[in-house]
Amino acid sequence: MAKVLVFVEQRDGKNKKSSFELIAASAAAGNETHALIVGDSVTALANECAQYGANKVHVVQDAALKNYSAEAYARAVTTAIKSLSPEIVLAAHTPMGKDLLPIVAAQVDGALATDCTSLQFSGSSIAVKRPVYSGKAMAEVEFVGSGVKMATVRPNSLGLPKPDTSKTADAASITVDLSGLKTKILEIVKGNSARPDVTEAGIVVSGGRSLKSAENFKIIEDLADSVGAAVGASRAAVDAGYRPHRDQVGQTGKVVSPTLYIACGISGAIQHLAGMRTSKCIVAINTDPQAPIFQIADYGIVGDLFQVVPALTNEFKKLKE
Ligand SMILES: Cc1cc2nc3c(=O)[nH]c(=O)nc-3n(C[C@H](O)[C@H](O)[C@H](O)COP(=O)(O)OP(=O)(O)OC[C@H]3O[C@@H](n4cnc5c(N)ncnc54)[C@H](O)[C@@H]3O)c2cc1C
User: Would you say residue 223 lies in a domain?
Assistant: First the structure.
């Protein structure tokens, strides 16, 4: 059994479910599982952590922590690690997690494995698996030495059990000295999309260069909206200006691992596969039966996306009705 500290990511007062995957996995392995929430007025978020299995919830609260800043959050997490002395520290491999944990690892002289897709707890240590060479191989990593063992885990990799909604938590406060910070977030300008982010969504519908224009992406958006999915894109589509870079899936975009990934008119270049090959179920729609995407697809539709995608949207809408 290990003492595990899970950094629970929150934005705008909402916990990210990818953090709950980590709490649940740690608790299921019988570990002493601590959750750490950092932000401003975040005590109300503690109950959810308990409902996914956290034995103890800690909060670091300060107006200076309202918006994420690497410097301030790293100071908060480092202080919590020094005060709680966990053997293992986990965070989701989200833009925040992959920004934060390397800094914390350096500050506490810990060992860090990033972008893990599985965790194996053993005594006070863990072994992790992580994709390497753009997902063409898996590396199994063991931690040696006595330092804190840290890992960021790709969202949707571990699965999310049902929460026990009867549970509540008494959050314990950790005081952090935030004086002398060198940076301050002045403003966050949000994108105007109401759809989920590709890294968090359970379903992602992506389009490629074959969409031919930004306007044509409307059929991808309609399909996505019919199933509550996020919209993704290949780099070719992003480079052509059809979608913003935040939607790009792949080696130089975002890495996703949804339950369902629908690739519409995407060839399946290795750099695209690097960002989505760990999806649980892959559906590919492509006019070319030899397209490489079909080699990793669970279901393939050889056809014109301009016919297939609207037809799928209609069927999903009917199912919902
Ligand atoms: C260093 C580096 C990093 C990169 N990073 C990324 C990355 O992060 N993400 C990424 O995606 N790419 C990345 N790329 C680019 C990658 O190599 C490919 O060029 C890109 O993924 C191709 O995008 P695509 O599949 O949309 O376009 P294409 O390769 O042009 O494929 C279009 C596909 O659509 C099919 N098609 C055409 N018309 C239709 C139709 N009407 N209906 C159905 N199917 C149709 C075609 O048969 C074809 O398979 C990177 C490249 C490099 C060198």
Answer: yes
